[in-house]
Amino acid sequence: MALRITDACINCGACEPECPNNAIYEGGVDWRFSEGTTLKTTTPQPPYVEDIFYIVTDKCTECVGFHDEPQCAAVCPVDCCVLDLAHTETEEELWNKKRFLHES
Ligand code: SF4
Ligand code: SF4
Question: pTM of the predicted model, to two decimals?
Answer without folding.
Answer: 0.97
